[in-house]
Amino acid sequence: MYIYEVGKKYDNLKGLEIIKADIFSNCIFLFIGYQNPTEREVENMTSGYFQFELAYINRIIFFFFKFGTEYWIDTPFSPYLSLSPSIKNEYPYLVNLVFYNTIDGEVKGTSVATIDSKKSKLIKSLIEKDMEKDFDSQIYDQNLKFLYDNYSTLDLLSLKL
After folding, report:
1. What domain of life (predicted)?
2. What is the β-pairing status of strands 27-34 and 18-24?
């Protein structure tokens, strides 16, 4: 696991705009990359009001995040695709955000937020439920493509648990 410092540049963060989440223990590590983020975006992402929701659609866990006045963003999650799918019974879960510029890989800000215990327990329950079933990456990809082709972030958010 990397330690990311604000103001430093990391080659592994250069590239396309992305929203990616992974879970380790009781922490969701969230990487959000924008191309040349504005001061307002940095401020919202790192010190704005935080909201979290989740949905379980077609065997895909969706995490929804809202930072300050920014739009809702979503990212899919599967424990089968996690780098370290270990989960613990420690509540509440945390969200550890790394917000960076995709042009040069510079970390623009970081923050840590708490997910309430009810939603934290729901995350753990959904992961355990999903791990009881076999996983087919082709079906997962097809389901994800279908959902993103047919639903906006707000449409998916309306199906929150």
Report:
1. Bacteria
2. antiparallel
Residue 41 in any domain: the answer is yes
Q: Which residues contact 38 (CB under 8 A, 6 or more apart)?
A: none
Please give the backbone phi and psi of residue 26, each rounded to the nearest 5 degrees, phi first.
-120, 35
90: pLDDT strictly greater than 70: no
What is the model's pTM? 0.91
pLDDT tens digits for 38-63? 999 999 999 878 999 999 999 999 99
3-class SS at 104?
coil
Rounded (10°) CA dihedral 138, 142, 144, 149: 160
Residue 1 has pLDDT above 70, yes or no: no
Q: Where are the alpha helices (DSSP H) in the chain?
A: 39-47, 117-131, 137-150, 153-157
